[in-house]
From TrEMBL:
Gene3D superfamilies assigned: Cysteine Rich Protein
CDD domains per the UniProt record, alphabetical: LIM2_dLMO
InterPro entries with a match to the protein in the record: LMO_RBTN_TF, Znf_LIM
Record has Metal-binding as a keyword: yes
One example GO MF annotation: metal ion binding
Swiss-Prot/TrEMBL keywords: LIM domain, Metal-binding, Repeat, Zinc
Organism of this sequence: Sinanodonta woodiana
SUPFAM superfamilies: Glucocorticoid receptor-like (DNA-binding domain)
Pfam families in UniProt: LIM (PF00412)
LIM zinc-binding domain location: 17-79, 81-143
UniProt signal peptide: none
SMART domains, A to Z: LIM
Name of the protein this chain belongs to: LIM zinc-binding domain-containing protein
UniProt entry tagged with the keyword Ribonucleoprotein: no
Length: 162
């Protein structure tokens, strides 16, 4: 799927042009040109929010036969970042869970040791940037105390899902 980003231009009318939006003749002295097509000022609009895209020099985006303002393009096709659990990209429109600076897909927000899904009020811990349920965190602490498992980092914190 091709993405196009283009600035809106203004041209002097050298003859009658057909508006790509309403298909009527453009009789104005100046006409807008975007995506190699001509437009009335009121016809060049975002396909999502209907905001006018006809401001000279402003940027519009075109994807999947949609004309989009920057805000809607980023909302539909941008990214929030990468999931801290699965490391896959998170689309900007997707709901996410956050723990400190980490971002997760909803389905990835679970204990990374036993895959326990968290509910409101559950405690979870961030250890080495991994989410652990209370049980697995306590198991880890027991192992550390017994000298079997790594070292305790001072930035490990208990968080509660609210």
């Amino acid at each position: 799927m091709q993405i196009s980003q283009e600035a809106v231009g203004l041209e002097m009318s050298g003859g009658r042009q057909e508006c790509s939006g309403c298909k009527k003749s453009i009789t104005d002295r100046y006409l807008l040109k975007a995506l190699d097509q001509y437009w009335h000022e009121d016809c060049l609009k975002c396909s999502c929010c209907d905001c006018r895209l006809g401001e000279v020099g402003s940027t519009l985006f075109s994807k999947a036969n949609l004309l989009l303002c920057r805000r809607d393009y980023l909302r539909l096709f941008g990214t929030t970042g990468y999931c801290s659990a699965c490391t896959k990209m998170i689309p900007a429109f997707e709901m996410v869970m956050r723990a400190k600076s980490n971002v997760y897909h909803l389905e990835c927000f679970a204990c990374q040791q036993c895959n326990h899904r968290f509910c409101v009020g559950d405690r979870f811990y961030l250890c080495d940037n991994k989410i652990l349920c209370e049980y697995d965190y306590e198991e880890r602490m027991d192992a550390i105390i017994k000298g079997k498992y790594g070292i305790l980092y001072k930035d490990e914190q208990c968080l509660r899902l609210q």
